[in-house]
Design brief:
Blueprint: H1 2-31, H2 54-65, E1 68-73, E2 76-81, H3 84-93, H4 105-110, H5 124-137, H6 140-145, H7 147-163, E3 168-170, H8 171-188, H9 205-220, H10 224-227, H11 239-268, H12 277-285, H13 296-327, H14 330-342, H15 358-370, E4 380-381, E5 386-388, E6 391-393, E7 398-401, H16 403-406, H17 451-468, E8 469-472, E9 499-504
Parallel strand pairs: 2-7
Antiparallel strand pairs: 1-2, 3-9, 4-7, 5-6, 8-9
Helix pairs in contact: 7-8, 7-17, 8-13, 9-11, 12-13, 13-15, 13-17
Amino acid sequence: MESITGPVCVAALLASVALLFRTLFGLRRRKLNLPPGPKPWPIIGNLNLIGSLPHRSIDQLSRKYGPLMKLQFGSFPVVVGSSVEMAKMILKTQDINFVGRPKTAAGKYTTYNYSDITWSPYGAYWRQARKMCLMELFSARRLESYEYIRVEETRALLSSLAASANQPITLKDHLSTVSLNVISRMVLGKKYLDEAEAVASVVTPAAFKKMLDELFLLSGVLNIGDNIPWIDFLDLQGYIKRMKALSKKFDRFLEHVLDEHNAAKAKLGKDFEAKDMVDVLLEFANDPNLDVKITRDGVKAFTQDLIAGGTESSAVTVEWAISELLKQPDMFEKAREELDRVIGKEKWVKEKDVQKLPYIDAIMKETMRLHPVAPMLVPRVTIVDTQIEGYDIPVGSRIFVNVWTIGRDPELWDSPDEFRPERFLGKAIDVKGQDFELLPFGSGRRMCPGYSLGLKVIQLTLSNLLHGFTWKLPEGMTPEKLDMEEMWGLSTPRRDPLVTVVNPRLPPHLYDA
């Protein structure tokens, strides 16, 4: 008996200490005034309430529990803001308290261990990256210098569509191509991903588009291991295996890009001048005066961010816009009337013309209201204990702003589920992060730094598609039968790509490539 007395006493002591800590922790927790929300289950929390379209599931919950709601995703508290007031509090008033990013498998495995602008944690590295984006990569001067690229690739799109007249086309394929070509030329210096470069750049255009689709899907999935870390190693859904495989494919391509850029710089020597965004990033990487050194992996992470972000947002938004217009053909007539009156039938729309096309602008905004590319924005994390409206928000809480719900708030919008571009005519509501009714690119410090480029590509593409073609659904398809279901990911594209038929409506010579 004496031989087990010691271990028993130690065990009893440890149990007493554990009970004491649990009691003290429980007392502290009971003092917190947390936002309302559903009662969580053990281990999984409220994950059982989240369906295949999380923004819709959370929208339904917020209607019951209010515009500031507390959920539990596995081991982590989650706070959701679903109103203009809550969005403004999170993204503006207390923006500095909510600038963290959660540690996720996607950030670890697909962005070189959180080395990009999207997933990097708040700190000196992120601040430096944001400054690089705003002052250099997406400066007004640089974007203006690349206007000729956007024009050339848009003309190529229009020519390609004209060549497919009267035939059913999958619109997303064409939109992804023009977006990818624009971004590729701006970021990489050339169309690495056209057929002529396919062998040299180690990936075909079709394969690269699939890689981008996979990246956006995996960056937005509800990975069980992200929420219950102690079972992460099991990879129950197989997402981590896919992330690792995808990362290898991207790395092979990006290594090729950086090798070519470094070789070109070495060849020119002192005569070298940065022409594209990779050149600029490599110059930053060699700058000894930077606060935080940018590694080769960092350059690759930024490059991947620029390519993916610039390609997806514009293609998804324009596809949704055409989809909505096909359900209400009379709106095509209104758009064409404005275009014919302001632009005329003898030329294409230029970027400087966009500000003179309020109805086209209203179509874009209404599309972003109903179909935001990131319906709950990219999740944030609180970096300090704070309060909102008297409710306690503990440090480490994951924060979502459900802009999908805000876009359908009946107190903000008449007939919120209907596509009505006219609601924006004569109103000053913008999409640049200052009007919290409409936040497709977010707001505050973590706002999408490339939103200005995204807007230019969307506006130029959409206005010329409407100007240059008549649109109809394939034979046998009616507007009522057009499926408008979405697919979840970091972006939210159509579940089924739009198939449509186009016919040129301007003089034939305008469509010459």
